[in-house]
Amino acid sequence: MQFSAKKKLLLQILADGKFHSGTDLAEQLEVSRSAIWKQINGLEEQGHEITAVNGKGYRLHCSLELLNKTLIYSFLSTTTQNCLAELDIHDQIDSTNSHLVALSNCHPDTSGIVCLAEQQTAGKGRRGRQWISPFGSNIYASIVWQFEQGPSSLAGLSLAIGVAVIKALKLHGIHDVGLKWPNDIYWQHRKLGGILVEVSGESDGPCHAVIGLGLNLFLTDQDGSQIEQDWVDINEILGNSHRVSRNQLIATLIEEFIAVTSQYTKESFALYRDQWRDFDCMRGQQVTLFMGNSTHNGTIMGIDDEGLLLLQTETGSIQSFASGEVSFRRL
């Protein structure tokens, strides 16, 4: 879904977080003052917090850096630009992952498309959970890539993508970030982002992987109250002294993602394994692993050479797991 041209222009004007009078807005949009009032109401209904003050006008409660395709492309290397088939930006979408999964199902040759959204109405986390996706303040991104071999060749891909996210964040001065198996981004035991990889295709190839990333740049307390676990955003990590450009960070993430996907094979995880272990924020932690209706308590011992989770159970034995939901146990 794309906003109307008038509504998009109004939002672009208000994005600076400063006051704009109704008269000035009406002149810039070439509409009446009453039409501006209706557009403002429409934005508020979509979740935008707008302050109206007599004699001053209207302002967004928080400034926004809206997605800009031209700007994102300007930050990409020529090599990455050549690997991109399309950069697709939506004002509002159900889910960037769902969009690319549907596209790849309809068009089997689809590859190299990045889908970005200002807002998701049905953002997806793991195990069917909702990903809280307010407008214009975070990163909701997915990329679809076609691989010549089957799904078994993509073992460890989500872990390799986790390493790529850490690299991108470090380039923007965001340090001390860790990885929680299998695909969560953490900072000081609070969730900063999540990765969702959905693979489809023939067992012997070719296959598609849709790789989604949700990353918290700025969440209000109201939006954060809907999240069922401890969370953090980049705004809190960096404080007021440094602000990351949303478009530039997205470009860096695209660079790092394509560096992984464009050359990934069954043997590729070995190139990322030691880096993942360096970023592992769970090793030595006592956890509960949820698998369907069963649970396993124990201590995380890291990952094996294939990227499987190693869990030392309460009996002292070490078991490996290919999937599951890990929860820290508070002692």
Short description:
The chain is of the alpha+beta class and 331 residues long. It is 32% helix and 26% strand.
Describe it.
The protein contains eleven helices and 14 strands. The protein has 331 residues and is α+β, with helices and mostly antiparallel strands. The longest helix is centred in the last third of the chain and has 16 residues, at 246-261. It has a seven-stranded mixed beta sheet, with helices on both faces. A five-stranded antiparallel beta sheet has the order 13-12-11-10-14, with no helix packed on it. Strand 11 (294-303) and strand 12 form a beta hairpin. The chain is globular. It has helices spanning 5-14, 22-29, 33-45, 69-75, 78-83, 96-106, 157-171, 221-224, 234-238, 246-261, 269-279; strands at 50-53, 57-60, 86-90, 113-117, 139-147, 177-180, 184-187, 190-201, 207-215, 286-291, 294-303, 309-313, 318-321, 325-328. 32% of the residues lie in helices and 26% in strands. The model has no long low-confidence stretch (mean pLDDT 90).
Brief descriptors of the model:
331 residues; alpha+beta; seven-stranded mixed beta sheet; five-stranded antiparallel beta sheet; 32% helix
Main sheet: which strands, in order across? Answer: 3-4-5-9-8-7-6
Q: What is the total tally of β strands? A: 14
Oligomer: single chain
Uncertain regions: pLDDT < 50 for 5+ in a row? none
Give the percentage of residues in beta strands: 25-35%
Computed Rg: 21 Å
Helix content, binned percent: 25-40%
Mean of all residue-level pLDDT scores: 90
Q: Main β-sheet, in a few words? A: 7 strands, mixed
Number of helices: 11
- Give me the secondary-structure category: alpha+beta
